[in-house]
Amino acid sequence: MKLRKKLYLRISFKTLNDMKKYICAICQYIYDPAKGDPEGGIAPGTAFEDIPDTWVCPVCGVGKEDFEPYNE
Question: Residue 60's pLDDT is what?
Answer without folding.
Answer: 98
